[in-house]
Specification:
Largest sheet: 5 strands, antiparallel
CATH architecture of the largest domain: 2-Layer Sandwich
Number of strands: 5
Radius of gyration: 39 Å
CATH superfamily of the largest domain: Ribosomal protein S6/Translation elongation factor EF1B
Number of domains: 2
Structural class: alpha+beta
Length: 188
Amino acid sequence: MIGSFSSRERVVVAGGLVAAVLIGGVVTVDRIRERYRTAAELTPVREQVLAQRQELVARRGAFASELEATNARIKAVSGRLLTAATPPVAASELQKLAKDMAAQASTEIRSERILPPVERGELLEIPVEIAVAGEIRQLVDLLARIERTPKLLTVQDLKVRVVNVTQPKELLVTLTVSGFILPEKPKT
């Protein structure tokens, strides 16, 4: 087909091919230079990310020891939680603990009431409201026993009233004692 072209046409076609090759070469070289420039700009950021990851890998032993320490603390604290995994059974255990402590403190339990459980993050708080009657020393002894118990108990609310205003010897205290459980995870 080129054989039918005149020499002038051949020069134009050859010049066009040379121009196309030159333009294609320039575009290709420009793209390669742009890619290298982008890579050069990203190199410091990638080096920084690599350094951070190497630092994390180097601190793996420290993370492992921290994890072991945290797991040990969790195990120690979970031993202070109420043993039952369901709220009604835990509330019953909490009532029994409260009755035992009240009996040891020589106070009289007038009423008990289980309150609805409250979610506290990963824990479930089991509150029980108890009305106790006794002298001030006995009530202070009861509060001290609640604080010293091996189970993790908190007093959420405390109301103190005098039973007989003319003889303010006996007090009626309504307190809300809470214990905590780890709720069972729903099976999926």
